[in-house]
Amino acid sequence: MKSPQAMICLSTSPSISFLFYGLSILCVTSATVSASYGGNETDYLALLSFKSKITQDPYKVLTSWNHSFHFCDWAGISCGKRHKRVTALRLGSQGLEGSLSPHVGNLSFLRELDLGNNSFQGTIPHELALAGSK
Prior knowledge:
Layout: H1 4-36, H2 41-52, E1 54-56, E2 77-79, E3 86-90, E4 97-99, E5 112-114, E6 119-121, H3 126-132
C-alpha cells in the first residue's frame, strides 16, 4: 500500500502542472502584449477601459478597437510617430453613449480630446482633469 504522503504528492502533481502551465501562458501573453504594443500597454489598457464604458456605438466606430490592430491604427486614434503614444482621441459626433473611464487620464501624451456631440453621462473623471494640467 502506498503511503498517504505519496498519494498526496501524486494527487497534487496534476494541480502543480496545471498551475505551471497557466503561469507560463500568462507570462507569454504578457510578453506578447508588451511586444505588440511597443512596450506601452498603458495606452492600450486605457483605451480598452474607455471602450468598456461605451454602451452604444451606432456607427460601429470602435469595432477596429481589438487585438488585430495596433491601437495607433484604431479609428479615432492618433499617435506620435517616434514613441507610438496616443496623442489624440477624436471621436466627435459618433453617437457614442456611456460614461468616461478614469483610465483615460493614463494617456500621458494626449494633447487632443474630441468627444463632442456624443451622449456621455456622469462627471468628468478627476484623473482626466489632472491629465490636462501636466
